[in-house]
Design goal:
This protein has helices spanning 10-14, 44-49, 68-71, 74-79, 91-98; strands at residues 32-35, 41-43, 53-58, 81-83, 104-106, 111-115, 128-134, 146-147, 152-155. By secondary structure, it is α+β, with helices and mostly antiparallel strands.
């Protein structure tokens, strides 16, 4: 037989039909819009010269705080920009050159801006379609990776 402490009457301590806030947060189902000067289409020559941007805007939720936490996610965010193609000198092969982790910047609670660097060896034989998938660890209280929309294209020139 268990012990019941009848001295702890919830209505006496926190109000009738109420519960104490215990710090548990609900999960967020995020969605992200992709924009910037590389979206919806950039050319092969524009990737070679650099300077284009990819902007990730959270429509629900917010990015994890700036500093150590966010810095630990920069590479994962960058690696989430994935080409549907597998060119030897294309997007996936040169992503570390095209978008160094330091160029993944948390602009504010809702926005991350990725500035593309020049990539002189970037060369493709057909259009590349880039899909952005953001790791859930980069978004506060998110429990699943988020596929952003729309995709964008690097046009073969």
């Amino acid at each position: 037989m268990g012990y019941v402490d009848k001295s702890m009457n919830p209505s006496r301590h926190i109000g009738a039909k109420r519960h104490a806030a215990i710090g548990i947060k609900t999960y967020v189902t995020s969605n992200i819009t992709v924009s910037g000067t590389a979206v919806p289409t950039a050319t092969e020559a524009q990737i070679v010269t650099g300077g284009r941007t990819v902007i990730l805007t959270l429509n629900t939720g917010k990015w994890i705080p700036t500093g150590t936490l966010f810095n630990a996610q920069r590479t994962a965010i960058r690696n989430g920009l994935d080409s549907a193609q597998a060119e030897a000198t294309g997007w996936d092969a040169l992503i570390a050159t095209i978008a160094p982790a330091a160029n993944v910047v948390r602009t504010n609670d809702k926005t991350v801006t990725i500035t593309l660097q020049p990539a002189a060896t970037y060369a493709i034989g057909a259009n590349e379609t880039i899909t952005v998938t953001v790791p859930y660890a980069a978004i506060e209280f998110c429990k699943a990776n988020v596929v952003a929309s729309p995709t964008f294209t690097i046009a073969f020139s």
